[in-house]
Design goal:
It is built from three helices and eleven strands, in the order βββββββββαβααβ. By secondary structure, it is of the alpha+beta class.
Length: 193
């Protein structure tokens, strides 16, 4: 990958073992490298970008960009990087700047790119139904515990329900399916700086 003064770089380790993923926003193309594999795609040849909030085990504040070039494999860029077996590095500022600039350059290229946010609708909406059903079931269990005079049990269930809603609700709020303008990336799919 050759470099110029207008290039923007970003790198992360997707797994503990293996080479880091390196990305560069060159003047007219997105370049990437992982070990001995490398590629380059013009900004106008990127057909779709999806930004989402994707926490994982041990990475509870992780964002993901999925990029589909016309004639290359899908690329994924995460906002966290493995450092050791038990440690991850958050790269909030670098990720936010890189993804915002990538979106701007792809939009300026004038291609037919779809800029998407959140989870695919066919996953999101059934997930909302399951979340609603689980919340109603947990609340009904708390009411039943109160009817049985188990105040401690009802309190525990209510606390569990609150934590469940806070975690799952935040995930679903950030991942609502939608689209965005290339020059205005929504804050819910980017880490705070």
């Amino acid at each position: 990958m050759t470099s110029s003064s207008h290039d923007v770089d970003y790198a992360f380790k997707a797994s503990l073992i293996g080479a880091p993923m390196e990305f560069r926003l060159a003047e007219e193309a997105l370049e990437w490298r992982k070990g001995s594999s490398a590629g380059r795609v013009g900004y106008g040849a990127i057909r779709r970008i999806r930004l989402s909030f994707r926490p994982m085990t041990m990475q509870n504040y992780r964002f993901l960009a999925e990029i589909w070039p016309s004639a290359a494999p899908k690329l994924q860029i995460a906002s966290t990087s493995w450092k050791s077996v038990v440690e991850h590095q958050r790269m909030d500022g670098e990720y936010r700047a890189f993804i915002s600039e990538l979106s701007r350059r792809v939009g300026a290229a004038g291609g037919h790119t779809s800029f998407e946010t959140g989870s695919p609708a066919w996953i999101y909406w059934p997930g909302i139904v399951v979340l609603t059903g689980a919340t109603v079931a947990i609340a009904a269990l708390a009411v039943r515990a109160l009817q049985a005079g188990a105040l401690g049990g009802a309190t525990f269930i209510a606390a569990f329900c609150a934590v469940f809603l806070w975690q799952a609700g935040g995930f679903f709020l950030r991942n609502r399916p939608g689209s965005y303008r290339a020059d205005a990336v929504p804050p819910q799919v980017l880490p705070k700086v």
